[in-house]
Amino acid sequence: MSTAPRFDSVQCLSPAGLHRMAYVEWGDPHNPRVLVCAHGLTRLGRDFDRLARALAEHYRVVCPDVVGRGRSDWLREPMHYVVPQYVADMVTLIARLNAQSVHWVGTSMGGLIGISLAGLADSPVSRLVINDVGPRLDAAALTRIGSYVGQPIRFATLDEAIDYVSAVAAPFGLRTREEWHEITEPALRRDGDHWVLHYDPLIAVPFGAVTPQAAAAGEAAMWRLYDSIRCPTLITRGAESDLLSRKTAGEMTHRGPHARLIEFSGVGHAPMFFHDDQISVVRDFLLQG
């Protein structure tokens, strides 16, 4: 079986009209066992290349570029860059895949999408990995992320872009220049004689518009969804994460699906499933069911 990725897209709907969500797919396209991997706020589906290759023997692995990122369209209305829209897009994707159920790996924002989908009645998610995120998000990390998301940054060279990404994403815990190159190059596009990050800068608009009252309401809603999850759930956490506190992660093991928690030392927000110790944890959990 070929381990080469395949590229496709699916048409989705927002209140402002139609948009295209791109995805990369690995493994046998006829395999009824489907794994969806959803990335973080400013990232894209190619972040999961290593995990997908490791699991392609067992799954049809599908890694979407959430709308506004990667090869996907940008939304006409930036205030639609919110989790409910992303969940709706994923329901459309799952229907396109003709999957009766899916396993889910979600990093950061992708984990919130997973919680939101898995917490719905009659959810198609039958096994869930939540990577370094939870219903309660620590304010310091949100401030850190807000300091760079959507900034109009241009790079004269690929090396300059790698320097930038390896600095702002240092908590990912990647170990070599080659690894930083691996996650940076797919996340860039040419703009004239420069490189720019391959996401719509306006994804920062709803992120920056959240009031304390809205944040509290959003947290309460996310806890309700989390408490409704009935499928086996694993939480992976960077031991030095500034987004998912150890206290919140511990609370998640005692309510809702009573998730299992595994921490990775030497990593902050968020583990990237680049190395064998992290990949094996996810593989072993998913293949139990």
Overall mean pLDDT stands at 95
Number of strand elements: 11
Shape: globular
What composes the largest sheet?
A: 8 strands, mixed
Uncertain runs: none
What is the level-2 CATH architecture name? 3-Layer(aba) Sandwich
| Strand line-up in the sheet with most strands | 1-2-4-3-5-6-10-11
Tell me the number of structural domains: 1
Q: Which topology does CATH recognise? A: Rossmann fold
Query: How does the helix and strand content classify structurally?
Result: alpha/beta
How much helix is in the residues? 25-40%
* N→C terminal distance: 23 Å
Query: Helical element count?
Result: 10
Order of helices and strands: EEEHEHEHEHEHHEEHHEHEH
**CATH superfamily placement:** Alpha/Beta hydrolase fold, catalytic domain
Percent range for β-strand residues: 15-25%
Radius of gyration: 18 Å
CATH hierarchy class name: Alpha Beta
Report on the structure:
This protein has 289 residues and is an alpha/beta fold. The protein has helices at residues 49-55, 83-97, 109-118, 139-146, 158-168, 177-184, 204-208, 212-227, 246-252, 276-286; strands at residues 6-14, 17-26, 34-38, 60-64, 102-107, 125-131, 154-155, 188-191, 194-197, 233-238, 260-264. It has one domain: 3-Layer(aba) Sandwich (Rossmann fold). It is built from ten helices and eleven strands. The strands form two sheets. An eight-stranded mixed beta sheet has the order 1-2-4-3-5-6-10-11, sandwiched between helices. Strands 7-9-8 form a three-stranded antiparallel beta sheet. The longest helix has 16 residues, at 212-227. The two termini are 23 Å apart. The mean pLDDT is 95.
